[in-house]
Each structure stands twice: as C-alpha cells, then as structure tokens.
Design brief:
CATH topology of the domain at 478-610: Rossmann fold
Strand content: 5-15%
Number of helices: 20
Structural class: alpha/beta
Helix content: 40-55%
Shape: elongated
Bound molecules: adenosine-5'-diphosphate
Length: 695
C-alpha cells in the first residue's frame, strides 16, 4: 500500500512528467498488484494472512457461534478453536498470536537487530527500538512542518535583507531544538507507558495461564474423585449384596424357628413348664433377628435405601410399652427405673414406630445394662410437635476420649468391657451407630453428656407431628376362621419347612392348600388347582419367583392375587416389571397378623374371631412383685455372702414354695446364674429396708 501510494502521488504531482500524470490511479493499482506477490516471495510468505488448510473439526465460529464454510474459518491459537475471518479481524485481545513476527514493532525490532551492533541489543529490549521507531515517525513530520513555516517566513521577507534572514534562521533553529527536545521526552514517556502496559499485560497473561492450569488440575482431581466415588459405590453395592445374601441365608431357617415358636406360643395345650422354653426360643430368635436387621439397617441407611414407614402411633400407649419393657429389667438388676412425663402427650403422633422404638430401646437398654447401682430415668417432654426424650443413668459414665467415637460403628467402650468381665452379655457396638443414623434420618438430633463415675445423659429430639381426629384403633383379633366359600391358596417355596409353616398356620383357618417346591411346579399346578391366592417365594433354584410371576401374568394362566414372601428385605425396594407393589411384600420371618390382614383384605374375607386380645402397644399388666419375709431374705443373704451357688439355689427353692414370690425367685435365679452377687445383695438390702422391723 505504501509503495503504491508513493508511486501514484509522485506521478500525480508530475514527478514522472505530464504524460504520466493522468495515469496516477492506475499506477497505484498496478503497483499494488505487482508488489504484493513480490513481497510475499521476498519474505517467504511469512506475513501472508491465510493459514494452510487444516481439517476443520467444526464449522462454527467460537466467537459469534455462526456456521461457516471451512474456508472461512481458521484455527485461532489464542482461543484454541475455529474462528471466522470477521471475528478474527475484529478481535483485539489475541495480540496477533497467529503471526507473532508480523507486527510493525516486531519487524522494526528485527531490522534494528540486523543493523545495530550486538552490544546495543539489551537497549533494544529495554525500549530503545520502540523509541527510535517513534522518533523516525515524529522527526520527518516535525521537520516538514518547521520547514514549511520557515519557507513561508522567508517568502514574507523583503529580498536581500540578510540580517533578518539570519535572525529568522537562528530563531527557527532554537525553536526546532526545543521542539526536538520536547518530542524526545514525549516519545520516551510514550515508550515507558507502553512498556508498563506490556508488563501488566504479560503479568495478567501469566496469572490467567496459572489460573487455567489450576482449573485444569481441579478438573482432573474432580475426575479422579468421581472415579474413586464410583469405585466406592461399587464396593458398597457389593457389600450390600453380600449382606442381603447373608441375611437371606440366616432369615430362612430363622423363619421356621420363629414361626413354629409363634404357633406353639398360641397353643393353649402347651404345659406351663414348656412354655418358658418356647418363650426362650422366641426371645433368642427375636434377638437374632434384630442382629440381622441391625446389620441390614446400617447397610440400607448407608446405601440410602432405608425409607421411613410413617403411620399414626398411639403415643401414650407407646410410652407405657417402653416403660413396661424396661421396668422389670431394671428391677431385675436391683436398680430403680423412673418415668417422668413433662406436660401432656398427644393421643396420636405420626412417625415410624419401629424406628422410634429401635432408638429408645437402644438407649434405655444401654442405660440399664451399664448401670450397676442407682437407677435410670426416662424423661419425656412434648412441646410444639417436638418430642424430647432424655435417658439419664447413674452408671459408670463415658470417658471424654470415648465420647468422641461413641457413635462410630463397632466402638465398644470401657463400660462394655467392665460389664462383659462381670458376665453380662456383650454388645456389638452397633446399637448407638444405628440409633444416631436413624435419628438423623428422621430429621432429629441426638446428644450425649457424660461424667465418668457419675452417669450419662442421652438426649433425643424428634419432630413428631400430632394427628388430630384419631379414629379408635381396631382391637387385635385372634382369627379362627372366615365366613363364606372356601378359598384355595397355593404356596410356592423351595424350602419345605417354610411351606409347612404356612400350611400349619393357614389350614386350621379353613383354607384349601396346595404346595409347589419350584416355579415350574407352580405353573404345572395352576390349571388343576385354580388358586385364589398364591404365596410366592423369590429366591428359588431354577425358575425364580419373578420369572414365575411374569409367566403367570403374561401367559394369562391365572389372575390369582399374589403375595411375595421373601427373606430378602432388599427386594421390597426394587422396581419390578410385573407390577408388584411394596405392600405386596411380606418379609420372612412372617408376622402372622400382617399376612392374615393382607389375605383378608385381598380376598375380602370376613374373619371369625375367638376373642379380643388387648392391643400390643398397651402395657402388659405389671407382674406381682412380693418380697419374701426378712428371715428368708437374711438366710439367702448369708449364702450369697459365702458365694455358694448350691446354697443359694436351695434357699431360693424354699422361698419358691410360696407362689406369691415366684417373680422374686425367677429374678434371683437369673442373677445367680450370671454370678451377679452384688446385684442380688442390693435387691435384698432394699427388700429388708422395706420391712419396718428388719435389720
Ligand atoms: P453395644 O451394643 O456394645 O452396647 P452401643 O453402640 O450401644 O454398643 O454402645 C457403644 C459403647 O458406648 C458401649 O460399648 C459403651 O461402652 C458405651 N455406652 C453406651 N451407652 C452407655 C451408657 N449409658 N453408660 C456408659 N457407657 C455407655
């Protein structure tokens, strides 16, 4: 452009003669056309704008977001993406990264480096090059301006006045020198300003790059974390699968044990002396079941699979039930148990009764278990829909270092070790973990304060909304049959004991029963037996329960009601394609009431009941606790002091002769079996204190 302009201006002012003057514009055009490729050839195409064609990945400009043909896009090293020619020419922030040596400053610097000696190079970098470039631009303009002014002044002078001409020249020279000085200072000031802006820009670029690197490293860390989380999730799922498989294996035999114990318990013909054995089986079974469920609970809560089963709860009845559960235990240990209710309790609240019971049983169980003397207090306060349970004991307390990890799984403290060494049953260290997790899940909080040697105080605060307009709870009925047509039930389970348990339970109620030991057998029996209802186990060798249900439904073989009776508690939460709902699942060990209610509701049965039993939530009548006469007590104490088990058992035998003391003897026998002589002494001391003349 420069060359073409110079040539055409020169032609226009007549430097190349009058005949060339009219062709000035064409000279400019021709010069540009010829010189451009010549410059490209001379510089090896370094400043040529078009980049080599690259395989374009996208056809969208990264700035304006519009689609272009690939020829209109180029890769921009500043944005590291495709950019269109318009955005490229308008962008001022890229600093021409794609052609770093093409800028005027860079070309000038290159020229100076070639012209000046090597020793001048550091000065060039410090801004000398830039300064010289400015001066090269300023000086001709300044010279031209002053020259023109001087020329005008000279023309205005009378011809031959040499003295004034000299004076004029001298003053113009002084003015030029002054202006030159000012131009130099201004140019240097501009160079410095530019330099500092450049340094700031470089610093900002450096910081941006560091930031980008930081972001990139965060992204990588995030990816690694995500991967680690996925691995942990997979491990957790494997653990859950393992736990659910184990629970299935344990629940299946337990189902038979507990089921038969329930049947025996309900049998009026069982002799009194065997009834206790049945009770022990039931209690042990229940304990085992709670252990399995505890482990399952932790797995389920951790896996986010535990959902709360919110339903109305008779709150005062519930409190009584809890008290009735722990009062005899505390009495049996020779410690007191106080229930203090602060204010009124609502008749009914909405909560998950099973989980609430689990939390309180755990805390109260610990308090009674670890307290050797003194007592346990359960305080219950209900205010503005918040229930606050306080469990205070006068036990050994918890040292501060244990207090920190008390809610961690499998943490058993010094209190547990002390009670284990005195013969009491050891805990698993899971109870408080589950209780805390459940409290958190229910949106509440659990706190603990403890002073070693003085006792502990556990506080649980829970939101238990009151339910108004409560309908009277239906009394529990003992079903002995039903009215109407006989119903046919098909029991599908590969475990013969489980099938027989259900047969023994359901046949006496008037159902017609058939059994199938596998999915295939079930399908074979359907056309002949035409059941109204099918009890289906899920885990069976060969065709499992799901597949059997699918074939039944898809083949239109039967439209019987189906209830799933499974030992795997996790199945309930599974989505299934055969349309089984959560309420159609009954987990083993089967709760007889639940199963019969479900059957009654689905088959629309009208039950015939034998009698009306009290609600399970209401407290059982307190057992009679009468202490033997002081003489008998003292005789027993003498044997305890000797530590002579046979003697103790002999004295207890004597006391048992009076049936009024049955409860006392039972408690003492249990303590004697565990060699808890201190507790026995404590009970006797209290009993003697109650007799006014005894010492
Ligand atoms: P465990 O089933 O072994 O009792 P927990 O999780 O319920 O397990 O309790 C963990 C530990 O906390 C116990 O081993 C015991 O050392 C301590 N602890 C819990 N409650 C009390 C309490 N009321 N008094 C003293 N120590 C307690």
């Amino acid at each position: 452009m420069g060359i073409a302009s110079l040539l055409s201006v020169a032609a226009y002012v007549g430097l190349f003669g009058e005949s060339v003057q009219p062709w000035a514009t064409f000279i400019a055009l021709g010069a540009a056309l010829i010189t451009s490729p010549l410059i490209a050839w001379a510089t090896g195409g370094r400043y040529y704008l078009a980049r080599p064609a690259n395989p374009v990945i996208g056809h969208t400009c990264c700035i304006c977001g519009k689609d272009y043909e690939s020829e209109d896009l180029a890769h921009c090293p500043a944005y590291q993406e495709q950019i269109c020619s318009l955005c490229c020419s308008l962008d001022a922030r890229c600093d021409d990264l794609c052609k770093p040596h093409a800028r005027l400053g860079a070309q000038w610097g290159g020229l100076l480096q070639r012209l000046l000696p090597g020793s001048a190079r550091p000065y060039l970098d410090a801004g000398l090059g830039h300064y010289l470039l400015l001066m090269v631009g300023i000086l001709p303009v300044l010279g031209l301006l002053i020259g023109l002014l001087y020329y005008q002044e000279v023309l205005a002078l009378p011809a031959g006045d040499l003295a004034r001409l000299d004076a004029l020249r001298a003053s113009f020279l002084k003015m030029s020198a002054g202006l030159l000085l000012i131009a130099g200072v201004v140019a240097w000031w501009l160079v410095l300003t530019h330099k500092s802006r450049q340094v700031a820009q470089e610093e900002s670029n450096r910081q941006t790059e560091l930031l980008m690197r930081e972001i990139e490293s965060h992204r990588r860390t995030d990816e690694l974390l995500q991967k680690a989380k996925e691995t942990a999730d997979q491990a957790n799922q494997a653990k859950s699968r393992y736990i659910s498989a184990i629970s299935h294996e344990l629940r299946t035999p337990l189902n038979s044990i507990l089921g038969y114990a329930q049947i025996l318990d309900a049998d009026a013909e069982i002799p009194e002396n065997r009834r206790q054995a049945v009770n022990v089986i039931r209690r042990s079974g229940d304990h085992l079941l709670s252990l399995i469920e505890g482990t399952l609970d932790i797995a389920r809560i951790e896996g986010g699979k535990l959902t709360l089963d919110l339903r109305p709860l008779d709150f005062p009845g519930f409190a009584q039930e809890i008290v009735a559960m722990f009062e005899p235990q505390a009495r049996g240990k020779g410690i007191s148990f106080d229930y203090q209710q602060i204010g009124e309790l609502p008749a009914s609240v909405r909560t998950d009764p099973r989980r609430l019971r689990q939390i309180l049983i755990n805390l109260l169980g610990n308090a009674v278990k670890f307290t050797a003397s003194g007592g346990v207090v359960l305080r219950l306060k209900y205010q503005r829909e918040i229930a606050q349970f306080e469990i205070e004991d006068s036990g050994p307390g918890i040292p501060p270092e244990e207090l920190e990890r008390i809610f961690e799984p499998f943490s058993r403290g010094s209190a547990a070790q002390a009670s284990a060494s005195s013969g009491a049953a050891g805990g698993t260290g899971l109870g408080l973990t589950i209780a805390k997790m459940l409290t958190d899940l229910m949106g509440g909080e659990m706190k603990v304060e403890s002073r070693p040697g003085q006792g502990s105080l556990f506080q649980v605060r829970l939101y238990l909304p009151q339910i108004h307009n409560v309908q009277a709870a239906s009394p529990r009925i003992r079903r002995v049959g039903y009215v109407g047509v006989r119903q046919r039930l098909l029991i599908v389970d590969n475990e013969a004991t489980d099938r027989e348990f259900l047969v023994n339970l359901l046949e006496p109620l008037g159902f017609q029963l058939a059994q199938a030991a596998s999915g295939q057998e079930c399908l074979d029996q359907i056309p002949r037996f035409k059941p109204h209802l099918i009890c289906m186990d899920l885990a069976m060798p060969g065709m499992d329960g799901w597949e059997t249900i699918r074939r039944l439904r898809e083949g239109g073989l039967s439209d019987a009601e189906i209830v799933i009776i499974s030992a795997n508690a996790f199945d309930q939460g599974n989505d299934n394609e055969v349309g089984m709902r959560a309420e159609d699942f009954i987990t083993k060990p089967v709760r007889i009431d639940d199963l019969l209610s479900w059957i009654g509701q689905r088959l629309k049965l009208e039950w015939v009941s034998a009698d009306v039993a009290p609600e399970p939530a209401s407290a059982p009548p307190p057992t009679e606790w009468r202490t033997p006469p002081p003489d008998a007590l003292r005789a027993l104490r003498a044997q305890i002091e000797l530590g002579y088990p046979r003697g103790i058992s002999g004295k207890l035998e004597d006391i048992a002769a009076d049936p009024a003391h049955r409860e006392f003897v039972e408690v003492m026998r249990r303590l004697a079996k565990q060699f808890q002589f201190d507790s026995m002494q404590e009970i006797i001391r209290k009993a003697l204190a109650e007799h006014p003349h005894a010492t």
